[in-house]
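Holo prediction. Input below; ligand is fe (ii) ion.
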Amino acid sequence: MIANSAGTHQSLDGFIATCRTLIENERPIAEITRAMEELVAEPAALGAQIPEPVISPDTSIAGVDEILFEDDSLTVFVVHSASDVRQPPHDHRISAVIGVYEGTEEQRYFRRDGGSLVRSGGADIGPGDVLTLGPAAIHAIGSTGSWCRAIHVYLGPLSSIDRSLFDPDTFDEEPMTVERYAEFCRSAVPGGSVNVEG
Ligand SMILES: [Fe+2]
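Structure of the complex:
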């Protein structure tokens, strides 16, 4: 259970209920960011609430995304990012709030430049860190050395939004699909390889 600034405790289920209320707020991004900061303030305690996923031959090379909640206004995922994998650039078309509770989520940012992409900075976010992305953001996540586990909140129905995926080598843009996302994963270790056949 997580202690928040009000001195009460919040479970992951409680966080989702809080987000469903805050999404109706005039400033939902700021409020959900604050709620996320409280949620991941004790990352080990949060991690103890969330089982690690069972890995099977069908598991994506990228790791495991588990949808905890989704409706027309809000999506909440647990994102377990596999170690030593760099995932491809993509957008969301809606705002996102990310909080890490285990490992380090490598964030690489991009921006559009004419018909292509250019790199535009990055950050490594670790346990207790929170990141907010606007609807125009293009990012790529990865994890080095160990799996990274994070809560990703999106201010809309992420699964049903038509959005873009970018080839990590050419930056060519194409529609996001789960299958192509996995194909575009690359090793995060110099000289390493990723089995893209899954
Ligand atoms: Fe993303």
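The CA atoms of residues 63 and 82 lie 5 Å apart. That is the main takeaway for now.
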